[in-house]
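Researcher: Go.
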Amino acid sequence: MADSILNELRERLKGAQEEFEAELDRRIEVQRQQFRYRLEQGKVRFEEDMRDWQARYRTGIWRYLTGARIAYLLTAPVIYALIVPLVFLDLSVTIYQHICFRVYGIDLVRRRDHVIIDRQHLAYLNAIEKLNCIYCGYANGVIAYAREIAGRTERFWCPIKHARRSADPHPLFESFLEYGDAEAYRAWMESYRRGKGNFEVRS
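Model: Structure:
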């Protein structure tokens, strides 16, 4: 009974998610028409008059720096120092998935689906703002990319839910086996071994 209720809720949630994503796509298309830009081979192209209009709202670098709080300027090196571990994380998980996922038969995570850097095309941003936006896009994208790789790894090796809910589990987590269900886990293990790499916990 409880499983049927959860499955029904899961299907409703899936339908709502699909509807939500369709609405997001529709709104993005409306924004493209409103602000007159298009994507050409992944690159943003604004119409010339729209770029001129945006440029009127750009703040000069000197004014931007002199108008900033001193605390913001002093903490900037702390923020940018994180580029070292971020690049190391990016490189590490990329090497890891290209080696291990191919062995395990797990689909590779497409990095470009998560690391999106395109705000530098906005003419109303000055050079410092563009650099900040590039950095934020990269940092958050790498973390999302690493999370997806970690989630697929967890699904492969230990697809068991935790005893208590986490604040924001990755999307694959809800399909995991129930915490404490030893019979289901062993049945899944045997089924997985017979399948020689075909993975499916449950729908």
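Model: The first strand starts at residue 37 and ends at 40.
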